[in-house]
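Internal QA ticket QA-208
Title: Verify multi-chain structure generation after dependency bump
Assignee: T.L.

Test input:
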Amino acid sequence: MKAVEDISFSIDKGEIVGYIGPNGAGKSTTIKILSGILIPDSGQCRIANMTPWKNRTKYVKNIGVVFGQRSQLWWDIPAEDTFDLLKDIYEIPEEEYQATKEDLIQRLNLQDIINIPVRQLSLGQRMRCEIAASLLHNPDILFLDEPTIGLDAVSKQLVRDFIKKLNREKHTTILLTSHDMSDITSLAKRIILIGKGKVLYDGSLKKLQNRYETEKYVFLKTNDTLNIRHKGIKQKTKNKEGYDLVIDTRLLSISDLLNIVSKKITIDDVEIDHEDIDNIIVKLYEDYKI
Amino acid sequence: MKIYFKSLGMHLKGELEYRVNFILSFLSQILVFFTYYFVILALFTKFDHIKGFTLYEVLFCFSIIQFGFSFNEVFARGVDRFDNLIIQGGFDRLLLRPQNIVLQVLCSDSDFVKASRLIQAIIVMIIALCHLTIPWNFMRVFTVLLMLLSSCVIFFGIFLMAASYCFFTVQGLEVRNVFTDGGKHMAQYPIGVFTKGFVLFFTFVIPYAFVNYYPLLYVLGRTDNLLYAFSPLLVLFYLIPCVLVFYWGMKRYASVGS
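Actual output:
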């Protein structure tokens, strides 16, 4: 059985790319190939001028990998002990190690949790330690496979901010998979969509949004009665404080709508909502039949 | 090596997190071990010897095998429990680290509870040797040490071979126990007590005979042939196919995936 086929893309240094697709699309398989765990039957892959599955020990010093669903920390002992072992495994010089560790402790706010046995940590705390563990050797490339899975809103935000900063300050190249689209929107400008083992879309997130975002939700706060018929207005419902409209932006732009409406009634307030990114993804998956 | 000892320390620290459990397990292992010991004692209340081997000669042989087996359970537990690494995906993580894979597998687990068996094996060996009238000389002491070493080596090889099996089946399955536990139970007796077919099998397929039979004959003074004394060294060659099979399995894993 083929898990992935004919997947091809290139990523520039310092880019953050969101790698998305439904469950079983081949995201993890791609990451395993890129990180040198799996050897593909055919095809080429060059990362930092190396082929991941050749010269494994040299290659892996360049990369960091976080699997959100799997821990690399030792369960019964504090995370700091795992860090110390990683220092020896990656043969990091003592000074460099201390500096990197201090830096990560600061950025990820680990001061109070690094000395507690890992099994006693919350998921959010553990994930922060996981990320730190994957970055101790200062890799140029970071693979994040669902780094925010199961995290609460605050922890998610902390992780995202950290990733953003890391990319900006150290120019770390990052490939990120997530089913939480808000991760992708807040971090990646470019996305690669795969399904059934093939690349379906590779480009900017904005473009994709524009392509699929054909509906906008407009709320008009008013005391007047609105009588309006226009082909771009797909739906109009009255509620206590005014009207909810669904607009097809291909037929009627928001500014035109407001122009028309403001001539008829007095508008007290306007709220415009985008279509939820998750809905866009659902549509996208439907379109590609994946 | 530094990484290995550091890992050992971490495992010990981890196990001591559950101190009561550790102590109870340690004690229970002593009892388990004594049941093995009593089977042999019981046997010898009916017979004076098995094919010319007396109680203490068998116990000596038994302790050598138990020593090697327990040694690997304590210090190479990661190889023994390799199926866990494959099933739970920990093996992928090892591939992401810039160190030798076998070394990392060794570092991945250890079982200090089994140290109780190791200690008892040594005690039984000392008791057995005290009761035997052996014309001690340098060569015989050296041969005993070689026997201990080769016992550790052979079980490491068998564990590694059994671990390779996981690359193909994922689950460890019981088949491997035919060679580890099954083989261990047979090898507790001098291989010479079995029929010829077994002796050949345990000489050429799994070379237990070089661990506890041929050198035993030399230590007991039943032969003066120095080849018998050095025969445990042949077990080192057994490691070669074991390591090769492991790496072959790993290659397959990389192209098939989990």
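Spot checks passed. DSSP finds ten helices and ten strands in chain A.
Status: verified.
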